[in-house]
Structure formats: C-alpha cells, structure tokens
Fold:
Amino acid sequence: MKHVLTVVALAAALSASSSAMAVAVSVAAADNFEQAALGTVIGATGGMGWASGWQSGLGASAPAVVHPVGAMQGNQSLQFSTNSDTAAFRNLTTAISGDVLVRFAFQYSGVLGGNDFLGLYFGTANQGNDGPNLGLKADCGGACAAGQDGFVRLGSTSQFLAGSDLVAGQTYVLFGHLYKTSGSVTYNNFDAWLNPTDAEMLSLTNPDAQAKGASSVASFSTIGFRTANLNDGVTVRIDDLSLSAIPEPATIALFGVALLGMAGLRRRA
Structure:
C-alpha cells in the first residue's frame, strides 16, 4: 500500500551533433497548466503545440487544475481523482510518426492499492489498451507484494521499471523514448527510465525497462491520460507535460539530449 501520484512532464529538446551535421529536435507540445484557471481542465488552452484545449470523458468529474501538494516544478498542476479511459486528452497541432521523447516528474500521496493506475497514452483511448503507455501501475498491477510501481507498455504486456517501489511525497522523473525499428510501420519499442542520470538522457542507454512488440499506433495526433482503480482518497497530479519529436530515428544514437527544467532531480540512491 502506498499514496497519491503526481506526474510532471518537463520540456525536452534534442541537441544533435555528429561528425558531419547537427540537427535539433523540437518540443512538439508542452503544457505546465500555469496559464489555466483553477478548476476544471476542460477547455484549458495553455501551453504550446496543441490544436485545441483539454477534453475529458468525465464531465463534471473531470480533472481539475489545482495548486500542487508539496514542492513541484510550478505552482499549478492537473489533479486526477476519478477513473476513465478518457480522463484527460488533447489534440496536437501536428501528427507525430517518428521517434519521440517524453519526460515527466511525479509524486504521490494518499494510499495506493495494487493496480492503482495512471497511464499516458499515445493515439486514442482504445489504442491505449495495446498502444504505448507510460506511468503508474501500483505493485506490478497487484502481482508483486514488494512493489514496482512504474510501468511501460506496448501491446498487451506491461514491463515494470526496476527500482520503482515509490515512496509517498517524493518527486520522481519518468523519461521515455518511443520509436520504431526493423522497418516497422507501427511503434514497436518503448524504453523508460525512472530518475535518469544526465548520461542516460544524453545516450538513451541503460533503460530501467523496455517494452517491445507490435502496437496499433503508426502515428498519433492525440495524447491522453487513462486512470483506473483510483479510490479511497487517492489523487494524481500531473504538471509540465512535454513531448519532443526526433526527425531522423535512424540516427538517434548519434545525438545528445539537452533536457530543460531538471530542477536538481537525479537518479534514486
């Protein structure tokens, strides 16, 4: 049993360099909720890279923009306390079909039970069932008493992040690299790190978990959050959501990542 999750996705940019060329990866979309009014997130239009405001399938129970509990990156965040496959989602200005980096910090409080869940998905909520997911799935979905609470998913199988027995009130960083290999039309690799070191973010090596397998997502123009089993006072907050697009997947290993807004967060001891 544990407590509430706060997810924070921080802005990421790729600063590319090789012996012959330099390519920059742009931040495709970001939102830190600072421009939103407190209260329901439905219709909130802050941030950059979005075609429209936030939407939710929860109606009056939609996630709300609130002040965070404890210290985080900013003074407003998005809080989840009810369950839906379409808890909050938003359309991108431009569809993405190549490599993408996602990075977010998170924190939880309250009491989590096995399989309390918040996942960031790419595509539609239906694709979220077998497409890319990254986030919280407490105690290996209820399958491990010791607790691994971070997960990454492609297809029907979740992989759990090593060392992710999370502690209430502590801030963490999740970082993901979603990409295609072997000529795949759909995304078939999703690497994830919990509190990555600078070296790991520069090299995209030593992930804490790797999800491999065919997904149903070839490109996406929507991202969203799915929640499940949040009850008994559990809430989840997200902040500083950011996606960065990488223009040439085949050359990703040649490039270095310059990440913004680290705020001193480092790998767990």
Remarks:
- Residues 1-24, 249-269 have pLDDT under 50 and may be disordered.
- The chain has two helices and 20 strands.
- The chain has one domain: 5-201+218-240.
- The domain at 5-201+218-240 is CATH 2.60.120 (Jelly Rolls).
